[in-house]
Amino acid sequence: MLLEVIATSVADAKLAEANGAHRIELISGIREGGVTPSIGLIERVLGAVRIPVHVMVRPHANSFCYDEDDLQTMLADIRAIGKLGAAGIVLGTLTAGREVDEPALKRLLEAAEGLSVTFHRAFDEATDQEAALHVLGGYPQIRRILTSGGKPSALDAVVQIQKLDKLCKERSITLLAGSGLNVDTLASFIRETGVSEVHMGTGVRLQGDALQTIDPERLQAAASIVAKA
Predict the structure, then answer these.
(1) Which family does it belong to (predicted)?
(2) Neighbouring residues of 83: CB distance < 8 A, sequence distance ≥ 6
(3) Considering its fold, how many domains does the chain have in total?
(4) Residue 91 forms beta bridges with which residues?
């Protein structure tokens, strides 16, 4: 079992590492679902922790459909992130019809050579998740898919996540389950779904507030649950 935790600052990253997180997803704009953090923040976080850091590449929170200017921005960010030494990136591209935008995805993956890639919760907005998974399975660089099973909270999509996890395993992709998970529900969710990786943000923050920093006690409790799973 592996626990990924959202960090939005150097302080978050240090707390994540010190209290049991196995990997960090580094973002800005947590209430917007995450956008690309600044180069300065990425550099500082990479210098502050030893656990893997995966960096969000999302130029804005307007949609997951990107025009040429957006793609050029993302390409520049990916190249910079790679040079800084991050372990991976987190991205997602959709067409206006809510299918995986393969032409855009191919361009981004070419720039991401050597980086582990997570396809983020754009997946949850896809019209047909199984069809989207089939497409993503054709790209070996995409190591995992972050999903809540198409629901605002993963807790409301247990059956769908069970199905998607089985399909992911058939394609050598890891399903990373996230959104809505907290310490009280984590053990039963892992047991019911059988997933091997979980992703937590607000659920391990002080007062359950997205804009507060990581709560060491909550994160330690989550890490302990994951360790026993």
Answers:
(1) Belongs to the CutC family.
(2) none
(3) 1
(4) 119
Phi-psi region of 121 (alpha: psi -120 to 50; beta: other; left: phi over 0): alpha
Look at the pTM and tell me if it is higher than 0.90.
yes
Single out the residue of 163, 190, 191 nearest to residue 178, CA to CA.
Answer: 190
Q: At what angle do helices 68-84 and 39-48 cross, to 10 degrees?
A: 30
Strand extents, DSSP E, 69-141: 88-91, 116-119
Closest CA to 30 of 156, 209, 198, 206: 209
CA–CA separation, 160 vs 164, rounded Å?
Answer: 6
One digit per residue, pLDDT tens: the chain, 229 residues?
999 999 999 999 999 999 999 999 999 999 999 999 999 999 999 999 999 999 999 999 999 999 999 999 999 999 999 999 999 999 999 999 999 999 999 999 999 999 999 999 999 999 999 999 999 999 999 999 999 999 999 999 999 999 999 999 999 999 999 999 999 999 999 999 999 999 999 999 999 999 999 999 999 999 999 999 8
CA distance 64 to 123: 10
- Altogether, the residues listed in the chain come to a count of 229
For residue 90, the number of C-alpha atoms closer than 13 Å in the C-beta half-sphere is: 27
Dist CA 106 CA 95 (whole Å)? 14
Q: Which domain holds residue 216?
A: 2-228
CATH code at position 57: 3.20.20.380
Q: Helices 216-228 & 183-193, crossing angle to 10 degrees?
A: 20
